[in-house]
Queue: 3 jobs
Job 1
Amino acid sequence: MASTKNWSRSKRMIDPQREITPQQVADNYAEVLADVAEACRRADRDANDVTVVGVSKYVDTATTAMLVRAGCRDLGENRPQMLWKKADSGEIDSDVQWHLIGHLQRNKANRLLRRDVLIHSVDSRRVLDAIVEASADKPRPTRVMLELNVSGDLSKTGMEPSLIESILLTECEHPSPGVEIVGLMAMAGWGTDDAQSRRQFSRVREFRDLMQQRLGMALPELSMGMSGDFSSAIAEGATMVRIGSRLFS
Ligand SMILES: *Cc1c(COP(=O)(O)O)cnc(C)c1O
């Protein structure tokens, strides 16, 4: 646990000049999978219930492709432009699942959704509406998560619980065609220690449980946990962990 703490606290930067080898990426990925499996074991959960989303925002397309060759089938980007650039490069298997984990500008929704993208970071009603519009002609609904601001940290994105509740209520009464709300996403606040981030993840799960109960709506996915805090997120029920720096340094 002591070593994981340093990951989030040091906010270590990835040096883009430093070459990382395919072997290092593969070793990092294997270590992360082992740590995820261990966290699942401690939490008495099945490791198959937690998806590791490899966050490739720090690295170029060639390095992202190394991670895919190491076996990672889920890639996360925080900028839509970077996601479509990599997805359309021809260098990355076309059957990986892409995840958008950062803010979506509404004018980019159409272009982004030419491919199947799971959007974790819906942070307003207007963004959801733009996704609904861009999903109109799609054969399958676009899966999205609503981003909860759990830390109360103003520097963090995400919606207040009351706003999420009102969006879910509206979706329950008048479901938007073309989108499926599959769960919630959250980030622990900056500078939180392990105990604080775990309490925040716990609050996300409790809020999700409350919404399911109040609205009779299934919200199976919880996207929470990054390089520094994924073990406690898994202990609190995360089904997707978003891991970047540990894979590429
Ligand atoms: C960058 C990023 C991550 C990955 O963070 P690491 O600490 O590098 O693992 C996860 N989630 C979001 C929303 C991010 O922007």
Job 2
Amino acid sequence: MTDVATSLNAVLERIAHVAVRAGRPVPGLVAVSKRHDAAAVIEAAHAWRQRCAERAMACTGVAFGENYVQEAVAKRVQVDAAAPPPATWHLIGHLQRNKAREAARAFDWVQSVDRIAIAEALARHRPASAGPLQVLVQVNIDDEGSKAGCAPDAVEPLCDAVAALPGLALRGLMAIGRAHDDPEHARPALRAMRGLFEQVQQRHAGIDTLSMGMSADMEVAIEEGATLLRVGTAIFGARG
Ligand SMILES: *Cc1c(COP(=O)(O)O)cnc(C)c1O
């Protein structure tokens, strides 16, 4: 196996192990491929499908995460040509209004919706033929230094707005935990996110996705009830 294949399998094993230990459903995985080339993504896609085939499972969970619209568009063309779909592509980076048109066409999910103007722009540009764009509302749960993500008290109105827009399907919440030397220090914010998620679920019964946890804090995130992890470095190695 290649390095990427070995690391991807190790991450998937680890996720399952920690979830079982914590008594949680096994969360999904978005492999974050930003600043890694198409060849690495193709390796990961093949390894992922092979793993499903070995387990005689439907391979519905193959997903890649990208931060920049242009980079993702170029990569997706190459990956689709080399590895047959279905893989889903998630935009996880901050989205500017002038990129919303391209993003609405290029991605299956946008996890970084943090204001109504962006939601409206995505809805306007989502081609009807592509089906609804899957949307997560990004919450700034603990990072005062970052402007990305809406404030916790803005989550409900923004979720209501997304749910009402044609072309968008509200699926849940996303948060980027602040970096800590000790992943245990990430726990209070991750726990607060789970609380917020359950609160939003009372209004929007259909939502099923809480995206949190990266390479450094994925175990704590699983324990605190993440349903989707975004892992880059532990799969693809350090970014150049
Ligand atoms: C880069 C990135 C990740 C992955 O981070 P790793 O530490 O490499 O696992 C996850 N989420 C977001 C929003 C990112 O920008």
Job 3
Amino acid sequence: MVINMASHTTPTPREGHSAPANSAELAQNLALVEQRILTACAQAGRSRDEVRLLPVSKTKPANTVRLAHELGLTEFGENRPQEAHQKWQETQDLPGLRWSVIGHLQRNKAGLVAECASEFQALDSLRVAEALDRRLQTLGRSLDVLVQVNTSGEDSKFGLPPQDLAQFLPQLSQFTALRVRGLMTLAIFSHDHERVRTCFQTLHTLRDQLRQNAPQGMSLDELSMGMSGDLDVAIAEGSTTVRVGQAIFGARQQTAGHYWPGVKED
Ligand SMILES: *Cc1c(COP(=O)(O)O)cnc(C)c1O
């Protein structure tokens, strides 16, 4: 399936979100995002601490991560394993950093994630779970994982179909280095907020159903949903983690296909 990325709302930077050239601009972008989160929480009757902001630094240089770290950010999301691993290496001197890999993983890259990441949000197969677990066991590490769900039904999206989760989750118990924390999704690429909202509602409902029979010790507290373009809707629908790139770090030069390898463009 070919998606016309021109109609994709999310990567379009909002007014006032230019690429931050310095710390003051970055701080300003961050304040705008923080205000949106606060407003969305207030409107939903939720507390601000129920929502984690995961800044997504993909395509931005390690120096941008340094600037953000000076402003107090310690968690960063990357969707490509190689890029995550490289920035992890380049920022070894910064205390307290946590890297979250949020994009599709191929088994042969599992070692990179096992080594550098604290969290992996795009688990979608037992083969990848097995590869990650094996690497983690060798390194004596463990990893928080979220299972990616394809809530839009688009062929181009990674993630398991919602109906596969009940079978999939119990099988993860054998991988003792993986701590299953919850679910993640990317909403449909659409200007139609109600279609976006439906994706988030699907994830929330699915999580509530799965939690009733969740394997022992498997917390499904996390609902990672919402990005620069739709974080407000996601928070209204119960998001516990919003993954925000462009609204903080400015527009990306790369086309969507560059960082979402599954998305085809014409
Ligand atoms: C890039 C990316 C984001 C952030 O998107 P923005 O539009 O830059 O906020 C969120 N989630 C995933 C999986 C991504 O790849």
